[in-house]
Amino acid sequence: MSVHITLKIRFGPLVSFEVTGQNCKEIFEALKGYEELNRQLDSMCSDLAGRIYPEGFETEGKETGEVGQ
pLDDT-based confidence at 22, cuts 50/70/90? Predict the structure, then answer.
């Protein structure tokens, strides 16, 4: 009998992550690069957010009149 392990994480309606293996060691090895991927995605998303909202979150307060009065 062969054991088959599937780890599936759903991040949203269109994004999911799936790793399969025959034992925990295989799953562990497959996930080793995940931390680096997470750092790269964080960097890309932060850069994109900075380009879309160059003033940061201060814009929210200015719109409601709470900041800078």
Answer: very high
